[in-house]
TrEMBL record:
Coiled coil: none annotated. This is 1-acyl-sn-glycerol-3-phosphate acyltransferase. Pathway: Lipid metabolism. CDD domains: LPLAT_AGPAT-like (cd07989). The chain crosses the membrane at residues 28-48. Residues 84-196 form the Phospholipid/glycerol acyltransferase domain. Keywords: Acyltransferase, Lipid biosynthesis, Lipid metabolism, Membrane, Transferase, Transmembrane, Transmembrane helix. GO terms for molecular function: 1-acylglycerol-3-phosphate O-acyltransferase activity. One of its GO terms (biological process) is phosphatidic acid biosynthetic process.
Amino acid sequence: MSVWLPSAPCTPGACVEPTGPAAAVPRAVLRLTAVAVLVLGGIVLLPFGRRIPAGPVRWWCRAIVRAAGVRVRVVGATAPAGGVLLVANHISWLDIPLLAAVRPARMLAKTEIRQWPVAGPLVARSGVLFIERDRLRALPETVARIAGALRAGAAVTAFPEGSTWCGRARGTFRRAVFQAALDAGVPVQPVRIHYRRGDGAASTVPAFVGEDTLLASLWRVATARGLVAEVEVRDAIPPGSRPDRRALARAAELSAGLGAHQEPHRT
């Protein structure tokens, strides 16, 4: 893996809060069963993903998050129609269905997913745009493919931090993907995702960071009580309003709340 790849200092031991007692096990099993049923249903329909209307896709994505025991609250602007680059901070695997609930889009994902058994070929057929994160020379070709999708009127979702963070600490938006929006002449839609407990305090329970496993993260979310996912859709940044990708990335970062005060990071 190349040294230029972004990474976060967040780890499960240092950043993630403990969750439920043994009494929460039956509830967690029911939640994970419901999530599995919804995901399997989605996998079956993946090859037809671009032909399914946006409404059912949004419902399905919200249902996955809700089945895991997390309430969803979406506020703010409406994502524009046509080609648009949706960008957000990245905390959890939950971020992916949450953004699709805002607007179904082609996801920018690491190319390793293509090699996953069964799921890899299905995901590839669903319209995912793959990026070879450890090959800097492949980046211009990836940017060109993203720009082509945007010009064709597709929405593309990306997490420009390049790595997951716990939500208390945050990364910065890498600039490359914003070049695609500039080249295609489409707006950038910043979105801020954050997770809270029932009392309104920030929660790191959903964070999927460091050497955490997906199974451990799923179990942690399923055993938690009162989690709320808040999705703030900020005003879109119009095409041509920023002179270059550096300025565009910075504007999106500030709009998504990453330039604001960060809560203390536990180490």
